[in-house]
Amino acid sequence: MLSAITSELGPWSWWVVGLVLLAAEMLVPGFFLVWIGLAAVAVGALSLLFWDSAFWVWQLQAILFAAFAVAATFIGRKLTRDHGNTDEPFLNQRGASLVGRTATLAEPITEGRGRIKLDDTQWKVSGPDLPVGARVKVISSNGRDLTVEEA
């Protein structure tokens, strides 16, 4: 059945496969089938040129389709990759978003360790020894601990 359809459609069979894959991308979103569909359309374009040539056998077409699909997927991923451009650069880096803010010590800094309260969270801090109630400025973050200096 498949060979009958392919022989009837000739070089247009790859175009049909490509358009079906592109249409399937709309039904099954994920932005992946589009690259495979474009690979099928590319083989279809070559089929229009070489369909009557002796070397243009189905095995060569299948190999080219596979190669084009892999290449199109890699190129497509590179083109559509998110480069981290966001309006909130510290979205998942809560500690880093606190750098530059000032707070009041909730516990004194003794032997280089203490606590501050920023917003609704208590943070462990390191810095120079200071009494409770001193104003400090956050100068760096290493994830969950903050480094402070006297404000």
Q: Percentage of helical residues?
A: 40-55%
Structural class: alpha+beta
As a percent range, the share of strand residues is 15-25%
Write down the secondary-structure element order.
HHHHHEEEEE
Shape: rod-shaped
Q: What is the typical, i.e. mean, pLDDT?
A: 88
What is the tally of helical segments?
5
How many domains? The number is 2
| Uncertain stretches of 5 or more adjacent residues | none
What topology, given as strand order, has the largest sheet? Answer: 1-2-3-5-4
How many whole angstroms does the radius of gyration measure? 30 Å
Give the oligomeric state of the chains in this entry, treating copies of one chain as homo and distinct chains as hetero.
single chain
Number of strands: 5
Amino- and carboxy-terminal Cα gap: 80 Å
The biggest beta sheet is recorded as: 5 strands, mixed, barrel
Membrane topology: Multi-pass membrane protein
Subcellular location: Membrane
Transmembrane segments: 12-28, 57-75
Pfam family, one: NfeD
